[in-house]
Amino acid sequence: MLFVCAFAPAVLAQSVTGFALPAPGCEPKGIAAGPDRALWFAELYGNNIGRIASDGTITEFPLPTSSAYPYFITTGPDGALWFTEVQGNNIGRIATDGTITEYPLPNAGTYPYGIAKGPDGALWFTEPHQNNVGRMGTDGSVKEYPVTTADALPTAIAAGPDGALWFTEQAGNNIGRIGTDGTVTEYAIPTSFATPASITLGPDGALWFTEWNSAKIGRIGTDGSILEYPLPVGTTFPYPAGITAGPDGRLWFTEGPLSGRVGAMSTSGQLQEYPVPSLGPYAAYPAWMAAGADGAIWFTEEAGMIGRISVPGGASAAEVRFHSR
User: Fold this and answer.
1) Residues forming a β-bridge with 84
2) 14-39 burial string, b = 16+ CB within 10 Å, else e?
3) Cα 215 off chain centre by
4) CATH of span 20-306
């Protein structure tokens, strides 16, 4: 069974409109642009995979496994979306028609988390509770590779420009690189206890990542050199989380849960921040991001909304919009 919702936009403040998710407590997490020009996202507590069209029409597809807790999602090499189920211990696949297939992982309790399409036509994912990076073929076959640092807590993962996958180690305080042959290299983040949260390929051929605990945006070249850019810490701590490359040549990232902002940083470290309005009784909590086929930045908002940022004129302006009931 699937659920389709389309709400008329409501003007809530200057340049803010939107459509809320049908169930505010669903807590949307990872989001990705699909091959159908829509955005697809995981609902952690809703136990659905959601789809939002550029006009705000929302469709939800329930998962076969109950309490699976889907978390991150990516477009696969086969024209489908692939996602992790942290509690279900599966890697899931959803076709654009909503057909879902689940592939169990060989070991229990792996807590699959981040996922990305690899250059080898496979899906690569992290297993924080097993301290592994996994590889799944589109046929469901799995290989697992241990991370060098013990208890490193590998989390987010992204494909690099060098034919390898790059990932964050929240407890290891490293950025890791894994070749498609399984060889792992680790690079220490200069700031201690930085807690790297998310990672993406930037327009400059480097990998950019957020440092949740140290309020910095990091950049790592394929040679392992790291630069860090501090965010302003005012009355509320930024806690940068999701990050994606935008169509304007900047890196866009979320700040939550306290600041309720999204930020945009040029590859030279110039920063702009934009407030995210709170819609309804919950404080704004922007979480994870993706660039859409419509030239906008889309993000999940954990109070139960999907956000859209129009970027007219590239870096010169930004308009924050919500899709809300």
Assistant:
1) 91
2) eebbbbbbbebebbbbbbbbbeeebb
3) 18
4) 2.130.10.10
Question: What backbone phi and psi angles, to 5 degrees, belong to 225?
Answer: -75, 135
Does residue 133 contact residue 144 with C-beta atoms inside 8 Å?
Answer: yes
The torsion angle over the Cα atoms of residues 150, 30, 160 and 227, rounded to 10 degrees, is -70
Among residues 266, 235, 268, 238, the alpha carbon closest in space to that of 252 is found at: 266
pTM greater than 0.85:
yes
Please state whether 173 falls in left (phi above 0), alpha (psi between -120 and 50) or beta.
left
**Is the pLDDT higher at 280 or at 221?**
221
287, 256 in Cβ contact below 8 A? yes
What are the backbone dihedrals phi and psi of residue 24, each rounded to the nearest 5 degrees, phi first?
-60, -30
Q: Which residue, 159, 88, 84, is CA-closest to 126?
A: 84
**Confidence bin at 83 (pLDDT 50/70/90):** very high
The string of pLDDT tens digits covering residues 147-175 is 999 999 999 999 999 999 999 999 999 99
Handedness of CA 98, 243, 7, 325 (dihedral sign): positive
Average pLDDT over residues 34-56: 96
Rounded to whole angstroms, how far apart are CA atoms 29 and 85?
12
Model pLDDT, residue 314: 44
Task: Tally the residues of the chain.
Answer: 325
**Per-domain residue ranges for the chain?**
20-306
- Report in angstroms the alpha-carbon separations of 286 from 144, 168, 260: 32, 20, 7
Query: What is the rounded end-to-end Cα distance, in angstroms, of the chain?
Result: 22
Digit-coded pLDDT (tens) for 280-292: 556 778 999 999 9
Cα 249 from Cα 252, distance rounded (Å) = 9
∠ CA 215-314-226 to the nearest 5 degrees?
35
